[in-house]
Amino acid sequence: MQMQPPALTEPGKLPAGEYTTANFYPGGLTVTLDDRWSSHEDSTGEFALDVGDAGIVFWLDMSPVTWDGKPVTGVANTPNAVSDWLHGVRELEVTPAQQTSIGQDKLPALVMDIALADDAPNGDPGCPTRACAAIFTFPEFSEPWAMSSDMTTRLYLAQIGDGPHMLYVVYNVIDAEMFAPTAQPVVDSIKLSTTLD
Q1: How far apart are CA 109 and CA 130, in angstroms?
Q2: C-alpha distances in angstroms, 173 versus 59, 152, 160, 177, 179?
Q3: What integer pLDDT is reported at residue 196 of this predicted model?
Q4: Residue 2 included in any domain
Q5: Alpha carbon distances (Å) from 87 to 1, 26, 173
Q6: Using one digit for the tens of pLDDT, what is the confidence trace for 51-74?
Q7: Mean model confidence pLDDT for the chain
Q8: What is the DSSP letter of 175?
Q9: What integer is the mean pLDDT of 152-164?
Q10: Spatial CB neighbours of 38, under 8 Å, sequence gap ≥ 6
Q11: Which residues pair with 171 in a beta bridge?
Q12: Looking at residue 1, what is its pLDDT?
């Protein structure tokens, strides 16, 4: 796979219809949106969609970290391996992984909901809630992606083709179940321009 050099655009308010990323995913990832959506980031590291205070984020090939942001080694970049790691993290409460599919091409995926455990320590001195814990990072991120203790998010993990690359789709919200009717049509509309080698 030929990865692009780091690039970032901020698309802002998006019109109804198809949107294809300019920077995220080599060749572009396309979603179909109604007129409620906007995007504050279309970068080589992340594609972020927003509606009100909620959103969906898309990532490729993330790296796991401990609750306080230290790298975790030995976790293969596959849905099963990442799911197994998440279910073993004592700071998290993770529902059993379910087999599903995402996108118009029905990419096989695992889906699970994630929340912080009641006794999870706080890894961020600036956390706005009782605790915040880091989970994933990416080379372009200035800091790891973290969850706060008031969140229940939903994570999809999908292998792309037969290669070593994996798509992460996350409901970046307080209540994943409540957000699902809004977010699921977008997840179902995903089209990838190409599989990655």
Answers
A1: 32
A2: 16, 7, 25, 10, 7
A3: 67
A4: no
A5: 30, 30, 20
A6: 999 999 999 999 999 999 999 999
A7: 94
A8: B
A9: 91
A10: 11, 12, 13, 14, 49, 50, 51
A11: 56, 154
A12: 43
For residues 133-160, give the mean pLDDT.
Answer: 94
Closest CA to 130 of 117, 113, 142, 112: 117
SS3 state at 136: strand
- Residue 35 sits in which domain range? 10-192
| In-domain check, residue 142 | yes
Token pair for 166: 């994996």
What pLDDT was estimated at residue 142? 85
Instruction: Tell me if 4 is assigned to some domain.
Output: no
* Cβ-based neighbours of 105, under 8 Å, separated by 6 or more: 191, 192
DSSP β-ladder status, 92-94 and 107-116:
antiparallel
pLDDT at 163: 73
Per the structure, the count of domains in the chain is 1
Q: Is 1 within a domain? A: no
